[in-house]
Amino acid sequence: MRTCKKCGEVKELEKFPIIGRRTVEKPYRMYTCRLCHNKAVRDGFTPEKHKRYRNNRDINKIRSHVRKWRKNHRAHLYQYDKKRKNEKIKIEDGIFITRNALKERKRREKLVDAIVKKDLKDRGFHKEDITPELIECKRAHIKLKRELKNER
Ligand SMILES: [Zn+2]
Question: Measuring CA to CA, which of 13, 91, 118, 119 is 20 to 30 A from 45?
Fold first, then answer.
């Protein structure tokens, strides 16, 4: 026996629609009786819709809570960010660098456009003369140099 959430009547389990089965013997049934459920579906309120609505509501609740918390803990967050910035990460045995330094290292490794551009500028190229083709060329050049260095 189960009490319907909608009408509050106590009914046989069979009167509640099955919405899932974990095992054949143990189907998972709704907490709304078939009559109420049918009525709800007729009114265009399917369980999926209800679920989506409930999830969205929960997400919005959490978001607003987080927003409020951040607002009330600004000083704390600022300290946290500062700490995080100065925190050293281990990259190799005995080598620790900051998060920012690690980011810069990755940029160098990947040879992003800005890095190649800076290299060209340092070698006396003017900003106007630096074309995408030139960057591509320089990137290949740097890669080749790195490979040669590794072979030695
Ligand atoms: Zn009912």
Answer: 13
Q: How many angstroms is it from 27 CA to the middle of ligand 1? A: 19
What total number of domains does the chain contain?
3
Residues 82 and 54 in one domain: yes
Distance 21 CA to ligand 1 centre (A): 21
Nearest 5°: the CA angle 26, 31, 33 is 105
* Interval between CA 29 and ligand 1 midpoint (Å): 13
* Residue 2 placed within a domain: yes
**Domain-located, residue 105:** no
Q: Is 36 helix (H, G, I), strand (E, B) or coil?
A: helix
The low-confidence residues of the chain, meaning pLDDT below 50, are none
Structure tokens at 36: 């109420």
Ligand 1 centroid – CA 87 distance (Å)? 58
- d(Cα 3, Cα 36) in Å, to the nearest integer? 12
CA distance from start to end of the chain: 80
pTM over 0.70: no
